[in-house]
Amino acid sequence: MTQLNGAVVIVEALSFTYPDGQRALDGLNLAIRDGEKVGLIGANGAGKSTLLLHLNGILPCSGPSTSLRAGGIRVLGMKVEKANLKAIRQSVGLVFQNPDDQLFCPTVGDDVAFGPRQLRLPEAEVAARVEMSLAAVGLRDFEARSAFHMSFGEKKRVAIATVLSMNPKVLALDEPTSNLDPRSRKELIRLLRQLGGTQIIASHDLDLVKTLCDRAVLLSKGKAVAEGAPEKILSDTALLEAHGLE
């Protein structure tokens, strides 16, 4: 597989077909540099979420055995395959679109501590990571709260904290601003800017991509059909219209 200077994620000729025959990715090539914020844009079914699920091996390693994949992915030099999944899942923090898919423990503190505890870290280290992660998302002293009684925006922040507690090298976020009111949306964008680091953001929120990202990648039918500065990509109305975004 090709190695690119400074790339922490390399996707090469990646194709993926679901068991029902839907081809979600079709020979996709993409490289993400260290510290870069990349916005994945595209119409529904373009392959954005499928790509994110490949980055830490949710697809196809734990997917249906009849799914078909070709090509490869490397994260921090590691091939995404079963032998490397533990290390890769510590390196890539995946935040789902719906935080209710990510939060399942009785308290916020337990949710944020879940990943570190799976690593069998000392409880003092777990507690320190919980405190650090909740502080990073603006939810200090929320450990005893139940996520089920929090606002949707607060749940999104807790979901981000659950992956921050693993000290990931890459944050992968699926539609982070979906279903948020205007104030919560602005707060989340501010939070993502403050967090820094390498971020891969799949979103229909084109203003988010323009505001936050260093590069936009337009996916269409599982292929990367255009990429570049967000201002350039998002100002090309003919390109966006041709691929279902206008």
Fold and architecture overview:
This protein is an alpha/beta fold and 246 residues long. It has a single domain, classed as Rossmann fold (3-Layer(aba) Sandwich). It has nine helices and ten strands. α3 crosses α4, α3 runs parallel beside α5 and α4 crosses α5. The longest helix has 14 residues. The chain is globular and about 50 Å long.
What's the helix and strand layout?
Blueprint: E1 7-17, E2 23-33, E3 37-41, H1 48-55, E4 68-75, E5 78-79, H2 85-91, E6 92-95, H3 108-118, H4 123-136, H5 152-164, E7 170-174, H6 182-195, E8 198-202, H7 206-212, E9 215-220, E10 223-228, H8 230-234, H9 237-242
Short structural description:
This protein has 246 residues and is α/β, with parallel strands linked by helices.
Domain count, please report it: 1
Output the CATH topology.
Answer: Rossmann fold
Low-pLDDT segments: 61-66
N-to-C CA distance: 36 Å
Strand order of the largest sheet: 6-7-8-3-9-10
- Strand portion: 25-35%
Residue-averaged pLDDT: 92
Overall body shape: globular
Number of helices: 9
Beta strands, count: 10
CATH superfamily membership: P-loop containing nucleotide triphosphate hydrolases
Which CATH top level class fits?
Answer: Alpha Beta
Helix content: 25-40%
Key words describing this protein structure:
six-stranded mixed sheet, globular, alpha/beta, Rossmann fold, 246 residues
